[in-house]
Amino acid sequence: MTYALASSFQTAVYQCLLGDAEVQAAVGTAIYDALPTGTLPDLYVTLGAEEALDRSDSSGAGALHMFTVTLRAESAGFARAKTAAAAICDALLAADLTLERGRVVGLWFDRARAERMSDGTRRIALRFTARLEA
Fold first, then answer.
1. Which of 37, 39, 86, 122 is deepest in the core (most CB within 10 A)?
2. 82-105 pLDDT, tens per residue?
3. HEC profile for the chain?
4. Is the pLDDT assigned to residue 77 strictly greater than 90?
5. How far apart are CA 65 and CA 131, in angstroms?
6. Can you give the pTM of this predicted structure?
7. Domains, the chain, ranges and CATH?
8. Cβ(43)–Cβ(28) below 8 Å
């Protein structure tokens, strides 16, 4: 098992989203690993929770990474956030992610959860699964 590829993988995901024209049209550059201080945009994306499971075999070290990309919207309604979520899905599923270390064997959409929060904001959590090899 190795978690050694996690940082390289997160960087590749971030660069993929930041460089995708449809994602940029939806959220601009409001894609964060850690939220900045000050006022946040009306719609933004955070790279979130991750879980890794050992998938090493006789050919080498590997892991299955389940990770979440979350959208948060201040505006009423889900339409704009869902458009951004679709762009994120399209970007990640079509990408040939290049890692500084290791490689992505496959990347799949797992699930999504759209919620209206108690403060009136909207939240969409997109969960993906990626198989990485060292």
1. 122
2. 999 999 999 999 999 999 999 999
3. CCCCCHHHHHHHHHHHHHHCHHHHHHHCCCEECCCCCCCCCCEEEEEEEEEEEECCECCECEEEEEEEEEEEECCCCCHHHHHHHHHHHHHHHHCCCCCCCCEEEEEEEEEEEEEECCCCCEEEEEEEEEEEEC
4. no
5. 6
6. 0.95
7. 6-133 (3.30.2000.30)
8. no
